[in-house]
Specification:
This protein is an alpha/beta fold and 154 residues long. It contains seven helices and five strands. It has a five-stranded parallel β-sheet, with helices on both faces. The termini are far apart.
Length: 154
């Protein structure tokens, strides 16, 4: 199975590139990990509250976004999973450890992706992606992508 990391704002437009990504790896089981990076605060209080972050992360993922991920997995049998996570750190070394821990093989960089801060601690993922050492695949969503179909059906 190939695991691909893709920057995301955890909105439905983040999923528009997944059908094109599946065409890039025809017939291969594929797992997509959507992520958003956050810097760590230097405040001791914030650092002590890191355990609380998992509850905060849940508020970043809407039910619509979750439903779209489930629908994508049902529509495309070669898609082993669409998961999401947050990366907390500010150094390239920490990011490389994140890549290794998640067994990332490639990075997908959607040409339509525009960084949107989700909080004051949000970081632009391009700072890490350009220097991480993994192959970066540029993906352009087609007109008939999954996200466009579901919006038209609404």
């Amino acid at each position: 199975m190939t695991t691909v990391l893709m920057p995301s704002n955890f909105k439905k437009d983040s999923l528009a590139c997944i059908p094109e990504l599946l065409e890039t790896f025809p017939g291969m089981p594929l797992k997509v990990l959507l992520f958003h990076p956050f810097g760590l605060s230097s405040s001791i209080t914030d650092l002590l509250m890191l355990a609380r972050r998992s509850r905060e992360e849940e508020t970043l993922i809407s039910l619509d976004f979750y439903g779209e991920c489930v629908e994508l997995q049902q529509e495309y049998p070669e898609l082993e999973g669409v998961n999401w996570t947050c990366f907390y750190g500010t150094t390239l070394v920490a990011f490389k450890n994140f890549l290794k821990a998640n067994s990332i093989d490639f990075i997908a960089s959607p040409t339509t992706y525009k960084f949107q801060a989700l909080s004051k601690q949000s970081l632009n993922p391009n700072l890490f992606l350009e220097k991480c050492g993994l192959p970066v695949i540029s993906i352009t969503p087609q007109e008939c992508t999954f996200a466009h179909r579901t919006e038209q059906a609404s």
